[in-house]
Amino acid sequence: MRQRNPSILRDGTSCFRKRCVAEGFPRLKTEDGTTLVEFAFVCLLFLAMLFGICEFGVVLYTYHFVSHAAKSAARWAAVNGSTCSTDSSCNGTLPMNCEPVGPTTAADVQAYVTGRGGNCTQPGITPGGIDVSKVYVTASWPVQSGSPAICATTANSPGCTVEVTVCYDYKFIFPLMPKGSSAKCPGSSTTGASLTLSSTSEMIIAH
C-alpha cells in the first residue's frame, strides 16, 4: 500500500488528515468563545447608544413643549390685560382657550398651559406625553425702567411687561441613566428629578 502524504500544518509540522481535524477542534472552540464575548460587548454598546438616542429625543420633545408653552402663554397674557374685558377685539373665544377674559391672573396663565385652576374652562395646551403634574408655570408683571407709570399700580395694564416661566421636572425613562438630581422647579414637590427644563418669555401687554 502507498502511504498517504501528510498534511503540512502552519507551524511546519506534519500530520495526517484525521489527526489534523481532531487537533483543530480546540482552536475552533476558542474562536467561538472569543466571538461570543465580542458580540456581547458590541451588543452592550449598541443598546447604550440606542437608549441614549431615544432618551435625547424625548428630552428634546419635552424642552420644545416647555419653550413653546412659555411663548404661547406670554402672548396670551399680553392680549388679556386689564382692559381686555372692555375691548371688542378680545372676546375670550377659542383659540384664546380661557374665559372670562381680563384682567389675567397668574392662576389663569397656569391654567392656560396645564388646564388646571384659574378661570380657564378649556383644556390646557399641554400635549400628550407630558406629565401635567410636573409642569410648573409662574407669571409675573415686572416693572421695567421704561414702563409706563401705571405699571407700578396696575401691573397688567397695556404697555406693561408680562413674564412667563414654564418649568418641567424631567425623569429619565430608560435604565442606566442618572437619577436623583437635587435640581427641581420652584414650588416643585417632585423627588428624584434628573433634569430641570425651563424657559422664560417676556412680552408687552397690548390690551
Give a nutshell description of this structure.
The chain is of the alpha+beta class and 207 residues long. The chain has helices spanning 17-78, 106-114; strands at 7-8, 14-15, 135-140, 161-170, 195-204.
Describe the structure.
This protein is α+β, with helices and mostly antiparallel strands and 207 residues long. The chain has a domain at 32-71 and 128-204. Helix content is 34%, strand content 14%. The strands form 2 sheets. The chain has a 3-stranded antiparallel beta sheet. A two-stranded antiparallel sheet has the order 1-2. Helix 1 (17-78) packs antiparallel against helix 2. The N and C termini lie far apart (113 Å). Mean pLDDT is 77; it is low at 92-96.
- The share of residues in helices is 25-40%
Low-confidence stretches: 92-96
**Spatial order of the strands forming the largest sheet:** 3-4-5
What is the straight-line distance between the termini?
113 Å
Number of strands: 5
Name the structural class: alpha+beta
Mean pLDDT: 77
Keywords for this entry:
207 residues, three-stranded antiparallel sheet, 2 helices, 5 strands, 14% strand, elongated
Strands, helices and their partners?
Layout lengths: L6 E2 L5 E2 L1 H62 L27 H9 L20 E6 L20 E10 L24 E10 L3
Antiparallel strand pairs: 1-2, 3-4, 4-5
Helix pairs in contact: 1-2
